[in-house]
Design a protein that fits this description.
By secondary structure, the chain is an alpha/beta fold. The protein folds into 2 domains: 227 residues, Aspartate Aminotransferase, domain 2 (3-Layer(aba) Sandwich), CATH 3.40.640.10; 121 residues, Alpha-Beta Complex (Aspartate Aminotransferase, domain 1), CATH 3.90.1150.10. Helix content is 39%, strand content 13%. The protein is built from 12 helices and 12 strands. The strands form 3 sheets. The protein has a 7-stranded mixed beta sheet with strand order 1-9-8-5-4-2-3, sandwiched between helices. It has a 3-stranded antiparallel beta sheet with strand order 7-6-10, with no helix packed on it. Helix 2 runs parallel beside helix 8.
């Protein structure tokens, strides 16, 4: 059998190594000038010019963003259940209650009518996830938020460079979080970036990430150690110069899969949306796990299931959602498979993926 085509593959090259060496030689390793430069460059390129604050993980970015926006005990924040647990975790870590709403079936993002039905007098915000790199329906969600006097926060962990009608994700809400984990569309090794709608939120995130200090030993609030190092920022700065080309590669790979896969539901793109394909996620109506196993064992094609257990059924988060029924979320959890779409794929890889999927699905029909 051919070597396994991985579902994801971080790209770290000589430029990133050289940047790390430069920082190591400088002697300034902790948060410093590299972080400041990375924040400025990221905000200009991927966050519509918004002030952006670097932290040590995407989860920290969500947590600190929520606290900076005034979310705390007694508040409710509406989130999707069909996402990585960090979305709901961050709300709970802020002392608030995550309220899980259902998704719409095409882009796997929050369904506005389910969100509407979830609003109570304790609701303070809606936090959509731009899942797999496709923007959520921000026009409808923003209109709903405005109608009820709610804030919008964005979990843009997977959506670097995605946009809706020409507006970049990360610029719709009070804050947005971008993850910089190794398998994301760009990485800093580990880390996150928080884009902020105003200077007050940005200053609060900066205080919270640094033990509550803006000036050394002048602690203004109770904070955390959530700083990014200059080593990580140096990697991120290099990756920032490459992510546009990598996104174009992902989009070309997705277009090839769209045109050639058979017997599965390929990911539709909403009108006006730019999808950056962090994941290329198909639906298989029956026996998804058989398909995943056959792709790997018979054809050497890796894949992922994101996410097999919805947040509202996780042992950790289920206490927030007793008896909750989210039918589209449950269906997606049964049917989704994410195929390789990353920039390292060759044409031979793409041909193998198409042949494997079409063969396996046909065999099970």
């Amino acid at each position: 059998m051919n070597d396994l085509i991985p579902a994801a593959k971080p790209i770290i090259g000589d430029d990133e190594r050289a940047a790390v060496d430069r920082v190591m030689r400088s002697g300034m390793i902790a948060q410093g000038p590299e972080v400041a430069a990375f924040e400025k460059e990221f905000g200009e390129q991927l966050a519509g010019g918004r002030e952006s604050v670097a932290v040590n993980s995407g989860t920290a970015g969500l947590h600190l963003g929520l606290l900076a926006a005034g979310i705390g005990a007694g508040d409710e924040v509406i989130v999707p259940s069909f996402t990585f647990a960090a979305t709901g975790n961050s709300v709970a870590l802020a002392g608030a209650t995550p309220v899980f709403a259902d998704i719409e079936p095409d882009q796997f993002c929050l369904d506005v009518e389910s969100v509407r039905a979830s609003i109570t007098d304790r609701t303070k915000a809606i936090m959509p996830v731009h899942l797999y790199g496709h923007p959520a329906d921000m026009a409808a969600l923003t209109a709903l938020a405005d109608e009820h006097g709610l804030q919008i926060f964005e979990d843009a962990a997977q959506a670097h460079g995605a946009s809706l009608n020409g507006q970049q994700v990360g610029t719709f809400g009070s804050f947005a979080m971008f993850s910089l984990y190794p398998t994301k569309n760009m990485t800093s090794g580990e880390g996150g970036m928080v884009s902020c709608a105003n200077g007050d939120i940005a200053r609060q995130v900066r205080l919270l990430r640094n033990q509550g200090m803006e000036r050394q030993y002048a602690n203004e609030v109770i904070g955390f150690n959530a700083r990014m190092t200059d080593i990580h920022a140096a990697i991120g700065r290099v990756q920032l110069t490459k992510v546009g080309g990598w996104t174009a590669d992902r989009q070309r790979n997705a277009a090839f899969l769209d045109a050639n896969l058979e017997g599965v539901v390929v990911p539709p793109v909403a009108e006006g949306a730019t999808h950056v394909y962090h994941q290329y996620t198909i639906r298989v109506a029956e026996d998804r796990d058989r398909v995943v196993t056959a792709l790997r064992e018979e054809h050497g094609v890796g894949s992922g299931v994101y996410y097999p257990i919805p947040n509202h059924r996780l042992e950790s988060l289920a206490p927030f959602a007793p008896g909750l029924d989210l039918p589209e979320t449950e269906r997606a959890a049964r049917e989704v498979i994410s195929l390789p779409v990353h920039p390292s794929l060759t044409q031979e890889h793409l041909d193998r993926i198409v042949t494997a999927v079409n063969t396996v699905v046909k065999a099970g029909a």
